[in-house]
Design brief:
heterodimer; A: alpha+beta; six-stranded mixed beta sheet; B: 286 residues
Amino acid sequence: MSVPAFTGSNVMDVDAAKIRGAGSNVHFDKVSVAYGAHVVLHPLTLDIAPGEILAMIGPSGSGKTTALRAVAGFVRPASGRIRIGATDVTDLPPYERGLGMVVQNYALFPHMRVEDNVAFGLRAQGADKALIGERVKDSLATVGMSGFSKRYPRELSGGQQQRVAIARALAVRPRVLLLDEPLSALDAQIRRNMVEEIAKLHRDLPGLTILYVTHDQTEALTLADKIAIMRDGRVSSHGPTAELYRRPPNRFTAEFLGRANLLPVTVAEGAAGPKGLATAKLGDAVLAGVARGEKPGDKTLLCIRPQHLSLTGDEEHTNRIVGTLREVHWQGELTHLVLDVDGTPVRVSATRLPVSLPERGSAMPLFFTPGDTSLVPEDVRG
Amino acid sequence: MAEAAVLPASPALRRVPGRFWIVPPAALLALLFFYPLVLIVQQAFLDDSGMANVAEFARVLHARFFLNALLNTITISVAATAGCLIVGLVLGLILAFVPFPGSGVIARLIDTFIALPTFLVTLAFTFLYGSAGMLNAGLMEVFSLRAPPVDFLYSTWGVVLAEVTVYSPFVLRPLLAAFSLVDRGQIEAASVLGARPFRIVRQVILPAAVPALIAGGSLCLLLTVNEFGIVLFIGAKGVITLPLLIYSKAIQESAYQVACIIAVINIALSLGLFGLYRFAAGRMGM
């Protein structure tokens, strides 16, 4: 049986307004978590607006899952308070917080049919039978799983199980939906589809506040209104997704979000003109980049994304650097080149290559637009 | 007459390498288990002079002493098994899901009960709850009583308590193994969805532990049906179970045919329970 995507039309069919709940904001107020002497989350102050998707991303052990589990009530903060809407939930048990949660391994109840899984939360909250029936039907329709209500989880594929897990979380009309690496167990193709479908789901349920924990930057970039990048139990950076991507505030963010190239430069002239461009020197090359208040003589990093580097120059691509070609990796729709520019490896993602590429070890010019760059301060903590 | 074609030997008839390896274990099993069993069954239908006597079988089946022993055996084993299931379940839930330092040590200590002889617990119970045990002596001293106030040990319930103490680890062990396989994500998901702990135990944890409960409970039932040492050691007045009755008839009264008849019924009961267990286990996919 094929599974329809949980598209907007599905939601329209079942009256999306029924699903839409008034989302709540989530407020972390200096929340820290420690296991004995080991601090896993340093005092965290952060707001998630109602209806917003905040993606927390970061490497393993960065504290992102701990922050989510503190919201869920599975981890007790060593200090600080957590508020959901107007309620201080810090001391409430998980079952009184009014949340929905989807985890990596789905965590469906294997001995219950799909419909009973979805109805579980409503039954636990004492909803009446008519309401349970209606909500189960609506939630399953929302995720395109109406035809699977009598199946057991073992009779479903991984992607289908994850849809049921989402339906189960939505059925209780959560104030906040917690997604803890929900797509990590799926294979790449299904994961891509699910990311798109979760994005559609949120468009159809715009009031739903979502805290989305992932280590996958593509999921975060696709889904999140805002991103918080975690590192060593602290928020390394936090802001609107596009802004964080275009103007990363530090090296870690630039590298973690999109694997940016970071060239060490010295500022020659501070920001000038309507575009706020500064000029900086990289060896003999003078380059223009979007500044954030640097002064002449400052040592900083010029951030440029691999896909913004061009192999041919034109009147827009006025910045020019020369590197030594080291590696070429053809990956179908993209070709990845690695060049050495003054000792710094520079990655290039090219959709089109010149008819003949220079030999490995040969010098090769790269061009880019000043507006696609930004100056990024070096991390103080390395 | 047509000449019969010579067919090659079918694969089934070919020599199977190592086929004689079945002989030693089969012989050993026959000698040590089946032959004595056959002797017991045979003896059950022969009187003391060696003549066939089926009527004695029917007489024993209707005798009051046998029916009392059967009732005692069933009552004690069912009560003790229920007790083991409750104690094992509660302990298992605490040890598996309530984090506290030293839970592993406690689990291993409980495990050691399996290694101890069953009468040892009974002996300890006598010291603790017996007529002259610590509890009674203390109560008599404190409240100036003339007779021991606690008198449950020498009753059916004393036997049940001792058996629950001895056999609960047989439920606890498979339960802990089953609980270790319960996905903590399911418990957390249930909790976030609004389920309180009791509902989580009932609807999420217990369904996952049903095979372990059946396995542990069946084992307890088998062991308590055949328990001899505890019942003998407690010596509760009027509490005679089938194994004790067999001992009494064979050793004290030299009524071998009666002893063998009761033994045959005891064996049938045990095998019946074992069959039920296998059937249930098969249905559960264990």
